[in-house]
Design brief:
The structure holds 2 protein chains of 2 kinds. Chain A is 69% helix and 0% strand. By secondary structure, chain A is an all-alpha fold. The longest helix of chain A has 32 residues. Chain B is an all-alpha fold. Helix content of chain B is 78%, strand content 0%. In chain B, helix 3 packs parallel to helix 7, helix 4 runs antiparallel to helix 5 and helix 5 packs antiparallel against helix 6. Classes of the chains: A mainly alpha, B mainly alpha. Chains A and B meet through helix 11 of A and helix 1, helix 4 and helix 5 of B.
């Protein structure tokens, strides 16, 4: 007795919507626990969103329409991507053929682009700094992303996430091939870049050090909630691509029954927990660097992506 | 260049070891700290020892076990120990004058790997039945040589230079293990002792540098001193 595909598809989007603050909470708490502090509660991001949705909306006088539509556009873009990727099921659901992994990446980029524009829009100094810095990182991480996707396409001869998942879940030689390992390492660095967890990202909330967070400083109330939620969802989606497509392609529902999808949610909790712990350890173990050391991790990930494509030749 | 036909499992094991040692070269290229160079070199030597043992096991060359043991002993323990002692004496723990930033060096290294791949394909085309592991060994060997040259040419610390030389030699050794596994044992021993002599000479050189020049950077050797 499997659920209708449309219900499963809605379930995928809802999973990304509802579980993304939990992932954020887990990472924040884990970071504090590693540093011997108590840390906030796991459900603190939910409380923050709730609080923000009930607060007053204050709009700067210098803001244009870009400022108003940005959080909504970013949030909508983040709701579209889970339709395209395997969050709960490992078979394509209705409308999942709208775009491949590259299309999903482009939709994710729309959200980042709009946030960048809104940072510039209000004319505040910090927003501009944040936008220019995140634009720099985006420019440098883009070639790596394209190369990683090219590597995946060479591996599986397709850009659709579902066949890639099947290939990696079923073939050990491919899973342990050097090419796949390189691609995973390169994508891990991209994951750190896109979720603001590189060693150049400051761990303190001081405006002058902010990179991605500075773009949304001018927001307040419900718009701030949407912007925050969109960034949490982006993190969740990147973790989904990293786990369910590239690294740990197991633990998805094969048939689409209710029990199977509940199990998939449980598997997501375990897999994301493992990856989040790795991210926390990497982020805590590295010393903070000044911003202009940004090329080093990005050069390393570019190199890994190139080596992944070289290793395909054997 | 008639290498053996190995089983798929053996091939994948060799590939993994070769690729892992190539990664360790990039650790050396992308870091500024001499300690990291040394650790990466040590890890690489242990991987090559494993590779020797694996080739000996799958190809039926019992003398390669001896080579593996000697590699682990000399390159994995003795050379790093000597180099570590030299670094301890030098009082320099990182590369101070960079001609090329580590991140640029990484990208150049990636380009060199692509060049090595092109050359290996070209050589492989001239063989009758190029095995994939042969192509991989050629690629890793050539890229390690090229990156060793890169280390020699863009790093100034005496330590980085000797490690560049050792990496270059490691690349040749790794390639020879897979391409011509039946290399005479005597040759291997000679190479090992060669390396020891090189490192000993290098120790003398650094001592000279520290006492007469006051630093171990080869940049300071451009001045004439009486």
């Amino acid at each position: 007795m499997s659920l209708p595909d449309v219900v499963s598809q809605i379930g995928q989007v809802l999973a990304a919507l509802l579980l993304s603050p939990l992932l954020e909470g887990f990472i924040l708490r884990g970071k504090e626990r590693v540093q011997r502090a108590t840390g906030p509660s796991l459900i603190q991001p939910y409380r923050d969103l709730w609080k923000l949705f009930h607060k007053e909306l204050v709009i700067p006088e210098s803001a244009s329409f870009v400022y108003l539509i940005t959080p909504v556009v970013a949030f909508a873009a983040m709701c579209i991507v889970p339709i395209l990727i395997p969050v709960l099921t490992d078979f394509p659901l209705p409308q999942s053929d709208m775009g491949d992994i590259l299309g999903g990446g482009m939709v994710l980029s729309i959200g980042s682009f709009m946030l960048m524009m809104s940072g510039l829009d209000t004319g505040s100094a910090y927003g501009g700094i944040g936008s220019s810095r995140s634009a720099m990182l985006g420019i440098l991480s883009e070639p790596t992303l394209i190369l990683v996707l090219a590597g995946v396409a060479l591996l599986a001869h397709t850009m659709l996430p579902f066949p890639v998942n099947h290939l990696l879940a079923g073939h050990w030689p491919v899973f342990f091939s050097p090419a796949h390992i390189f691609i995973v390492c390169a994508f891990f660095v991209l994951l750190l870049v896109e979720t603001d967890r590189l060693p150049i990202h400051s761990s303190t909330d001081i405006e002058i050090y902010m990179i991605g967070a500075a773009r949304t400083l001018e927001y307040s109330g419900p718009l701030m909630a949407f912007a925050r939620w969109a960034s949490m969802m982006k993190q969740f989606i990147l973790y989904t691509i990293f786990c369910n497509v590239l690294t740990l392609p197991w633990g998805l529902s094969h048939v689409g029954t209710l029990v199977g999808e509940a199990g998939a949610v449980g598997a997501i909790a375990i897999k994301f927990g493992v990856v989040a712990l790795a991210v926390i350890v990497v982020e805590t173990a590295q010393a903070r660097l000044r911003f202009f050391r940004y090329q080093e991790p990005l050069a390393a990930s570019f190199l890994l992506a190139v080596l992944g494509i070289v290793a395909q030749q054997f | 260049m008639n290498s053996l036909q190995f089983t798929p499992l053996a091939t994948s094991l060799f590939s993994l070891l070769a690729i892992a040692s190539l990664i360790l070269v990039f650790v050396m290229l992308g870091s500024r700290w001499l300690q990291n160079y040394l650790l990466a070199y040590t890890g690489q030597c242990w991987l090559i020892a494993l590779l020797s043992a694996a080739v000996g096991y799958y190809g039926g060359y019992p003398e390669l076990y001896l080579v593996a043991a000697l590699t682990a002993l000399f390159r994995g323990l003795a050379l790093p120990y000597l180099l570590w002692r030299i670094t301890g004496r030098m009082g320099v723990d990182r590369e101070l004058h960079e001609i090329i930033k580590p991140s640029s060096a990484l990208v150049i290294g990636a380009a060199l790997v692509l060049l090595a791949l092109a050359v290996a394909e070209h050589i492989g085309a001239s063989l009758a039945h190029p095995d994939t592991v042969v192509l991989l060994a050629l690629t890793v060997m050539l890229s390690m040589k090229l990156i060793g040259f890169l280390m020699l040419s863009v790093r100034h610390e005496a330590m980085s230079q000797i490690l560049g030389l050792l990496v270059l030699e490691n690349g040749i050794f790794l390639g020879s293990q897979i391409l011509v596994p039946g290399m005479p044992l005597l040759l291997e021993l000679v190479i090992l002792f060669d390396l020891l002599v090189a490192v000993a000479c290098f120790g003398v050189l650094t001592r000279y540098l520290v006492t007469h020049v006051g630093s171990t950077s080869s940049l300071d050797l451009r001045r004439l001193r009486g």
